[in-house]
Amino acid sequence: MTAKLEEIAARTVRYGELQPCRTAFIDAHTPGSNQKENFTIIGGGVSESADQHVHIKETPGFNIGAAGQPPHCRNSLHVHRTAEIFFVLKGRWRFFWGRWGKAGEVVLEEGDIFDIPTGIFRGFENVGTDYGMIMSMLGGDDAGGGVVWAPQVIEDARDHGLVLGENGKLYDTQKGHSLPDGVGPMPVLNEDELKAIPETPAEDVVPHYVARYNDLMAMAEKKPVKVVGAEGLIRDRPGFDVELVNGASIAGTPQKSERHQVLMVMRGHWKMAFDGGEMILAPGDTCAVPPDFDHTLEPSMSGEASLYRVSNTDDTAGATWKP
């Protein structure tokens, strides 16, 4: 194996090798949410569990993760302080938001992408018929501590044996755990804090923050489509740009960027070729391409092929763009 092939192989996480954590968050015991699987692919993500496996610790200015859930399983309502962008890899998913999850909702199909506005309560559930997977992009090198749970989520979790400490760590009373001396429970948001979190209707979210996969594929026939970024269809600046690439828009063209780039394969098998070797990327695979890495990308077989390419920017992982 050449040095370059060894380097890029070490920076690639295969879908079939993802290691899930089933105790990542405070609702891990709560009925309806207790079958979730959380994956941290690049960076530590926002897991609250010491059991979480991190595949690639080095971050390029953002984190990459995933959530896998069986049908009817949901992720409980929470607020993020930094960007949270999802695309659906497998299945059909309903995203909902608001204090009680009733301010608005949208259903996403495979390949659809959703840049969820910061500062609103959000949750999601698998409304398909099979195990589903959504891939996530989180703003900032350190996404830890960026989650605030709705008060009812913390209360329900406590009733089922999980307590979140003010240090951001979970303690399982069913296993005999208790809060360490000097560590109190995570305080819940008070009424004034809750009133400051907007109840944003769907008509103010969906047209500006959702991009449909079929539309993106049609637009990407000649060149990659800028999906999220200062020049994107979703004009957000979360610290990274996202574009959709299909086989027609990039095949065989030399690729090189001064930025860190992460390739997240949606459909088909892609051949990445470079001086010293080549490798195949399959659906669900994630590859962290270092700056100034000369390579080409093209589908390795006929049929539909697409991937999301994420690049770091000089923007901070700050507030989501608002129309």
UniProtKB/TrEMBL annotation:
It holds the Pfam family Cupin_2. GO terms for molecular function: metal ion binding. InterPro entries: Cupin_2 (IPR013096), GPI/OXD (IPR051610), RmlC-like_jellyroll (IPR014710), RmlC_Cupin_sf (IPR011051). Keywords: Metal-binding. Residues 71-131 form the Cupin type-2 domain. PANTHER family: OXALATE-BINDING PROTEIN (PTHR35848). This is Cupin domain-containing protein. It comes from Pararhizobium mangrovi. The lineage of its organism: Bacteria, Pseudomonadati, Pseudomonadota, Alphaproteobacteria, Hyphomicrobiales.
